[in-house]
Amino acid sequence: MRTTHHANVRSFRLSTRSGPFSLLHPQNLLHISSSASSSAHFPPKKMLARLASKRLLEIRQVFRQSPQTSRSLSTALNYHIDSPDNNPDVPWEFSDANKEKVKEIISHYPSNYKQSAVIPLLDLAQQQQGGWLPVSAMNAVAKVIEVAPIRVYEVATFYSMFNRSKVGKYHLLVCGTTPCMIRGSREIEDALLKHLGVKRNEVTKDGLFSVGEMECMGCCVNAPMITVADYSNGSEGYTYNYYEDVTPKRVVEIVEMLRRGEKLPPGTQNPLRTKSGPEGGNTTLLSEPKPPPCRDLDAC
Amino acid sequence: MGLGLLASRTLRTTTILSKSPRIFASQDPSNALRSIVSTPELQNPEAAAAAQPNPTPDLPPRTPVAGARVHLPNPDDAIEVFVDGYPVKIPKGMTVLQACEVAGVDIPRFCYHSRLSIAGNCRMCLVEVEKSPKPVASCAMPALPGMKIKTDTPVAKKAREGVMEFLLMNHPLDCPICDQGGECDLQDQSMAFGSDRGRFTEMKRSVVDKNLGPLVKTVMTRCIQCTRCVRFATEVAGVQDLGMLGRGSGEEIGTYVEKLMTSELSGNVIDICPVGALTSKPFAFKARNWELKGTESIDVTDAVGSNIRIDSRGPEVMRILPRLNEDINEEWISDKTRFCYDGLKRQRLNDPMIRGPDGRFKTVSWRDALAVVAEIAHQVKPEEIVGIAGQLSDAESMMALKDFLNKMGSNNVWCEGNDMHPCADLRSGYLLNSSIGGLEKADVFLLVGTQPRVEAAMVNARIRKTVRATHAKVGYIGPATDFNYDHQHLGTGPQTLLEIAEGRHPFCSALLNAKNPAIIVGAGLFERKDKDAIFYAVETIAKLGKVVRSDWNGLNVLLRNAAQAAALDLGLVPESGKNIESAKFLYLMGADDVNLDKLPDDAFVVYQGHHGDRSVYRANVIFPASAFSEKEGTYENTEGCTQQTLPAVPTVGDARDDWKIIRALSEVAGMQLPYDTPGAIRSRIKTVAPNLLHMDERDPATFSASLKPDFCQKMSLTAFGTTVENFYMTDPITRASKIMAQCSALLLKK
């Protein structure tokens, strides 16, 4: 047999996703340690209890180092749980306008490779449903492209932009990739979550907002950035706008503007910048660029 | 073995090699002291030189891994590659991994499986190929002419070690409580190719277990995402239920929606899973594989005769696993075969019993039971004696039963499932003449009154394989049923058959244009009154479509029971059709599926068998017999291949082998049968059906239906029926099995 592979205390098998259910969750630990110290009536036991609580404190500290012990997966669960509004028996169909679009999308592919249309069709279905894909919508897509439903589920679970649980009318996606993270995307997410009073991938009570995480959208030069997927007008008025150079204060403003229904120009939110240009105007390349040196053809 | 030290060693040698090969070649004593290396070449400069591009011609020949064979259909297509300097000729299109296998080098692998499509996602099979900048995944890389493959260089070793470290990152260290322990690919390969430590200190991930039904237990945290099960379900089993969900480190195998695996082959995912993620639910925590004794036997729950290994511990059958037989079951078995074993422990008949006047059974001694039966047998008229062999009977006992009844003056003996007018004259009339493996050559199938998925799951798997590979057309005549491949439902009964025979049906053109058409007739039709007319119609179609030729015989009958073929070979054909109605002495040898409603009330019924099943309710005397796992018995499968079961466990109670009971009864009855040993009874069988002595050989039927006289009988137009209602419960063993009961409860719920 192999020798110890992981000696670290953190290599205990924990349920990574379901924090509250795990026995070693910080909150639970707190509870255990307090009960242990209160029940210590006898001196030797007291010492033991103190030792135990000290150990538990250490373990807690290990957890405190990484407040999110669960993996921050941008998508939710990889399996489906039946709920009244999301189960295979809920009828779902493309709307008549979208049926035309479906035909159009499928016509892009050879007839024997219909399944290639899975991503555009899932996207269309998601727009029609208001930003998320119920399992019956995936089944409908599977029927259209004539594959087993599991092949569609595979695709929908792979791509983090397919939401398999309800999202708000404005789905706010915070980029969490390295450049944005360095420029403070964590604070931005925290500010959003705190302002809206929800957890990640949760919808606000009024159904307007939800916050999710996504990977790099290629706006690193304007990091940090958020994306607002606007499902408030169905698939016709669907927009997917980037708001760049945001600050914790600015994202709250953006949220409030969206709530008031104000139109807000996408792009950088730093008034001193123009698009991806440097703050306060250019500092280099100020003169007219010199023409490239050309060979003097006549000299030959 | 200090294989763990390989890590530091490999790292060292690579750095040394990259700097100066000279140091490596000169045996540094400290280097040799510090490490133990499994390959001597690294220690030995001469051998290392031999592994260099110039292959020395006097390399000793190597034996291919696991009997890997090279079949060169066209010698011009052969290419030569060098595996560790050893030249090997392989056909074009083989992968690097296969070339290595032919050269006798076993490449570690997890996702690659020879019977599934190539995924190339575990990366364990990395090898070094000369002039390739990176190690290549040998399972997915086609071998090219002159390729120089190196499998034991430091680069290859380091690559494997790295892959192994990644695989073990998220794999729990729960081998002591894992059912796969001891037969786990990951365990074995981490011993051989892994490092002794990992550098991963983060949290291991955990995955929610999936409910795949009563047969397959899942511990998804152990899964290494090789996708073998997904590919098996999609490609072989034909149920697209499993998939790979999520991505990156969140990736997991699942069904997404709560769904049970509804395949008759689902148990095979247990075998192909290289780790303990999918294990057998009934076998969970029952035994370790090194405690088990394996007995190579064959399966009797259907007519396919799948090759199995019965794993037993002491007197108990612990599990059943498939054995490789390319011609019959490849390396799969059906769930019924795999999980029927718990039926062997329940409802068993232990002692001889006689029904008393109060209607209750009383345990008696063998001597008393035999004496009572012998006395009654002499009291009835010879033509009132009837014997029926059950569907699990072996050839020896059927021979003994027939000889005994013949000696008593009766010839009313047959095997259930064969009806009372079987056509036993021409072997081709009741065998799967194309052979199971031969079905792969067929390009059009016509299934007449058979549902192969439930009647013979392995034959169905073969048809599915053919349909998948060659897009062969399948036409089906019979009641609507589940197929796991594309098929045309042509009709439900003889009407459609007649249309095809007369050339009026659109499917005729497919049959006529086929190169190797195969017609498969279900043995369920044997029970129809108009079966001769149906077979005549089928033969007409065969003539029409040139199904029977000298190089191809595509006219097949798919039998249902393990005993049927041998019974017909031995001539278990009753004299008169209506013998049950007039029987006064009925000898049931494990026959539980016979309809005894018409049996006169005063008839004396002897039941000889291993399970207290249906017929026991009517029996007057019970002789306990041994089950297939407890005896040596000859069985002939539906394609005419003779195989043997071997005793894996002792019999229960006072039970005896079937043929021995009949032999003993014959002596008590005063007409002793002339055989005392299995050898002697086999030489008796030799005089009747010599093919039953050619073990593990398929004796094809020599004469085909052309010898049959033309026949004109009115065909009734009632539609064909379903032969097997419940796949999981077809014989006394499976009916007694708790696991099969759970499965059929799910089947009925669906």
From TrEMBL, chain A:
Domain of life: Eukaryota
A GO cellular-component term linked to this record: mitochondrion
Keywords linked to the UniProt accession: 2Fe-2S, Iron, Iron-sulfur, Metal-binding
Key word Ribonucleoprotein present: no
GO biological process, one term: mitochondrial electron transport, NADH to ubiquinone
Family annotation (SUPFAM superfamilies): Thioredoxin-like
Gene Ontology molecular function: 2 iron, 2 sulfur cluster binding; metal ion binding; NADH dehydrogenase activity
Chain segments carrying region Disordered: 262-300
Pfam families cross-referenced by the UniProt entry: 2Fe-2S_thioredx
Cofactor(s) this protein requires: [2Fe-2S] cluster
Family per record: Belongs to the complex I 24 kDa subunit family.
Name this polypeptide is given: NADH dehydrogenase [ubiquinone] flavoprotein 2, mitochondrial
TrEMBL record, chain B:
Required cofactor names: [2Fe-2S] cluster; [4Fe-4S] cluster
Domain 4Fe-4S Mo/W bis-MGD-type residues, every copy: 292-348
Keywords, alphabetical: 2Fe-2S, 4Fe-4S, Electron transport, Iron, Iron-sulfur, Membrane, Metal-binding, Mitochondrion, Mitochondrion inner membrane, NAD, Oxidoreductase, Respiratory chain, Transit peptide, Translocase, Transport, Ubiquinone
MF (Gene Ontology): 2 iron, 2 sulfur cluster binding; 4 iron, 4 sulfur cluster binding; metal ion binding; NADH dehydrogenase (ubiquinone) activity; oxidoreductase activity, acting on NAD(P)H
Ranges where the 4Fe-4S His(Cys)3-ligated-type domain occurs: 155-194
Function, as annotated: Core subunit of the mitochondrial membrane respiratory chain NADH dehydrogenase (Complex I) that is believed to belong to the minimal assembly required for catalysis. Complex I functions in the transfer of electrons from NADH to the respiratory chain. The immediate electron acceptor for the enzyme is believed to be ubiquinone. This is the largest subunit of complex I and it is a component of the iron-sulfur (IP) fragment of the enzyme. It may form part of the active site crevice where NADH is oxidized.
PANTHER family the UniProt entry points to: NADH-UBIQUINONE OXIDOREDUCTASE 75 KDA SUBUNIT, MITOCHONDRIAL, RESPIRATORY NITRATE REDUCTASE
Official protein name in the record: NADH dehydrogenase [ubiquinone] iron-sulfur protein 1, mitochondrial
UniProt organism field: Liquidambar formosana (Formosan gum)
